[in-house]
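User: Here's a chain of 217 residues. Predict its fold as tokens.
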Amino acid sequence: MTTSEAGGVAVAVRARNPRTAAAHRQDRALHRAPGRARTGWSLRDVALAAVGLPGVLVVGWLVASWALSASLVVLVTGSMSPTMPAGTAAVVRMTPAADLRVGDVVTVPRGDGARVTHRVVAIDDVPGQPQERLLTLQGDANRTTDRDPYRVATAGRVVASLPGAGRVLETVRQPAAAGAGVLLVAALVAWALWPERPRGGDRRAAGERASAARRTV
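Assistant: Prediction complete.
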């Protein structure tokens, strides 16, 4: 620090070290542009999205199925072709028989315990049972109605369907496919969360900031 006379008053002037000032300017510049700016989606982002999106869909379906009393049915025959060919996945919602209408597609149990998904072509009342109905069903691809009517108090009415999705669901349910899917998801999560090595530009920027800090001291 030096002093100088200005109008008879002693004024203190701090001598500025040009090297220190240059180091400060360089450090500010490095903080403004620390290597390459990250733009777009990285492979890690895509991997996390690939794992997270199915999980969100599954959770959403579980909540919706619980709230709406809905379930999934896979059509294994082509009796409802061409609208719902074999391999179609249908979303069915349990509905009181009194609310069913001719033209609805419903899933009901047969006498042997299997389930059939056909279209309602006639509805009759059950004497003495106001909550029950006799449903006459027929597949869209069948020339005749089912042999016997179905007496039900509730039935699963089809509210949505997606051809081909049933085959995917059946494949995923296989033990080998399920095990492979779990391993794949675990590998993607591990890779996506693994600490990323700094890029060359980031390492150089960090080194320059460290050098500037040492020169400042």
